[in-house]
Amino acid sequence: MAECAQTGARAGLLHTPHGVVETPVFMPVGTQGSVKGLSPRDLIEQLDLRLLLANTYHLYLRPGPEVIERLGGLHQFMGWPRAILTDSGGYQVFSLSGLRKVTQEGVLFRSHLNGDAHLFTPESTVDVQLVFGSDILMALDECLEYPASHEAARESLDRTLGWARAAFRHYRQRIQERENCGALFPIVQGSVYGDLRRRCAAELRELDADGYAIGGLSVGEPRALSLEMVEATAPLLPRDRPRYMMGVGLPEELPEYVAHGVDMMDCVLPSRNARNGCLFTSQGRLIIKQARYKDDPRPIDESCPCYACRNFSRAYLRHLFQAGEILYASLATLHNLRRYLEVMRQIRQSILAGEFPAYLNATRARALEELPAEL
Amino acid sequence: MAECAQTGARAGLLHTPHGVVETPVFMPVGTQGSVKGLSPRDLIEQLDLRLLLANTYHLYLRPGPEVIERLGGLHQFMGWPRAILTDSGGYQVFSLSGLRKVTQEGVLFRSHLNGDAHLFTPESTVDVQLVFGSDILMALDECLEYPASHEAARESLDRTLGWARAAFRHYRQRIQERENCGALFPIVQGSVYGDLRRRCAAELRELDADGYAIGGLSVGEPRALSLEMVEATAPLLPRDRPRYMMGVGLPEELPEYVAHGVDMMDCVLPSRNARNGCLFTSQGRLIIKQARYKDDPRPIDESCPCYACRNFSRAYLRHLFQAGEILYASLATLHNLRRYLEVMRQIRQSILAGEFPAYLNATRARALEELPAEL
After folding, report:
1. Cβ A146 vs Cβ A186: under 8 Å
2. Which of B51, B28, B47, B24 is nearest to B360 (CA)?
3. Is B87 an active-site residue?
4. How close is the nearest chain A Cα to the Cα of B344, in Å?
5. Is A111 an 8 Å CB contact of chain B?
6. Catalytic-residue membership of B266
7. A70 touches chain B (CB under 8 A)
8. Rounded distance, CA A334 to CA A338, Å?
9. What pLDDT band is residue B187 in, cutting at 50, 70 and 90?
10. What is the ipTM of this complex?
11. What's the whole-model pTM score?
């Protein structure tokens, strides 16, 4: 719909079987089939959320694809009528599970829940996501730790490429047999090596997918390196397909990724930080447990229209946090997600208005001068 | 408004500074200034809740009366626009705090939070509740454990009577100086001794209070004894004032207390049981973690109109429970409270229609035949 003349930023529309999504978009994470503490009604009425992420690894282990299938698919199971993107399970296998063994075929691992052995293959993870009925599916990839040697990254990359091709072969066959299937995205890997990232992007491009993800970043490498890798990768991906940067970011980083041509992002940051007492506001970060908020009658953010900011004081939220009350988690998560979606809205508006560079500069200036003191 | 010809049941209206409450009424418990997992909006829009209970002991310790006063009182602090009843703090001092020492003056205790020493007197607990702005305040009483000897109960009773008189003396003075004060209720004690209960009721009656509570029951004594004590006490209380039975009960017990002339009840049961996986339905109790619900597509209760029952399956709720998801607590609590309020609504309707004895008998019959198997 619109492209920034000076940066790589784009604004568009993503059409899914469960509705239209305005891009660039940030996806809240509903790991176990629930965005922690928020009901579908909160997500729709309070946030007008269009797209969320659910984790294949977790849902595969519990409650399992059979249960979800029997209950009519993931949307019906969750009571979520809009779009769902499921990741491939690759990241969690490598970060959460116990002993695991990678082969050409896939990855054998032990459940972190009960130690049972399972095998994920590119084909099986496509099947699981088709059973879920995800609007966007992700191809199984291997997520390397950081740092990794160029050789290890290259070897892993070749495996990921093989898995991507296998996933697409299988997917293309399956969609002949099923109705209403979502779109499969492959994931660009290559660690922090520009040459590997470029090769991977070029090879995955040949799959002619409906969208492409950039994975294996935000795993401990310096932020500048993450952006460098996006810069190496994004221009090689098809211009008319969405680019999904996985696992990012902080509010001030969102426009940076958009500036590099990213259309989709996901992160547990807003929800997890909320529960841990760190709230994002238009004036910077606020740590709710601090004594200064004990009798502060102001809302978290004067400019925020969310239910939490319209009805409750910092003092009350701090009280709920200190008291370990469940309501704190719901209100704080609602607020942080509202903040993130507001940032994305502002980014998108500025792109459509041809003013994104100014918005980006304003964000950078604000991040520089953000003082933790007077909030 | 209506009285049952055969039993002691009554239906009426309780007028408070924050709205009218239909009696008999069940009050959900918002211990620390929040009904766990539910926002004020949920309570109003989903349950049309008119009155809830908050604990003076907890709120006095954290965040404290000064903070609440500075934030405009408890209603404003909580964002709860309807009625609040606060208990005196007596029960928690005796059940939660560490070392404590009872004197004629009051009770010295150590906070369960940090061990600090505090003194509760009949006067100070009235003042704290006036600062909170409660619609109904409770007078400080001494809660004996069960069992207690007649002598210990008598000695405790005399102290409680002295405290009640001191509380009312102080309260009557204070309400000359303040506007919009709530009503103070004294609490009938006397352990499981009918003679003590009757004497206490008669003496408290002389305080000419706006309502009376029956306390010190549901502390481990057999249910039959609790009802016996209510039967001994209620008829001695003024007919035109509400009777508040503290700390009860299970769904099938609610009509029993109403039959003995009780107009108000409170209990953590519906909310706590919800969080622990025990759901109350029109067909009996349901333990959500049971394997039989793993792929059960039905709502918790087919006849329940709550948000949880209208949108989610038992399978999903079970999944959320197993997964430790926050949303489970909110949905389950919402459902159980809806169930309790529905039972109260049915009780009240039957009294107004002159059909309460039939309702009571139907409840008794259903409780007898309740089979845990097919649900």
Report:
1. no
2. B24
3. yes
4. 26
5. no
6. yes
7. yes
8. 6
9. very high
10. 0.96
11. 0.96
